């Protein structure tokens, strides 16, 4: 069920975290996501080394998931430790705020997109390809959403230069006139 990356750990495929009792557990071709609910993931020990990400995970992950403002996907390392996670949300960008380019061209006043709100890998598992695997999974899910509801791009607001370089390396482009990056979904 796990996938071994180039490093020393085996990671589970990204799975959906249930934010509240009664929310459906997602199943995928890779298998069941299990039955984890609020409080069953160890958010407290998750540490990326980035204060903004760590604070959000520790203080808001469960409440945002329960409120329906973000869907959290996670990956566990062998042994069950939370290794990495990301969130997706519905979002839109005001066309006037985009200073030209593909993202603005032939779009409504509010450009529909999917927001990659948080992507983080615990320090114990950084440098082993998990960030890329999580990003691939986020892109796949955003593309699927865009086929059913319409979304032009996957948007991310990198929190520092390292994150900007990461997204640029994987083909994300800067939204003209902003510090936000996007990947085309169509």
From TrEMBL:
Protein keywords: Acyltransferase, Repressor, Toxin-antitoxin system, Transferase
SUPFAM superfamilies: Acyl-CoA N-acyltransferases (Nat)
Signal peptide bounds: none
Catalytic reactions of this protein: glycyl-tRNA(Gly) + acetyl-CoA = N-acetylglycyl-tRNA(Gly) + CoA + H(+)
Region (Disordered): 1-30
PROSITE patterns cross-referenced by the UniProt entry: GNAT (PS51186)
Domain (N-acetyltransferase) ranges: 41-186
The protein, known as: N-acetyltransferase domain-containing protein
Lineage summary: Bacteria, Bacillati, Actinomycetota, Actinomycetes, Bifidobacteriales
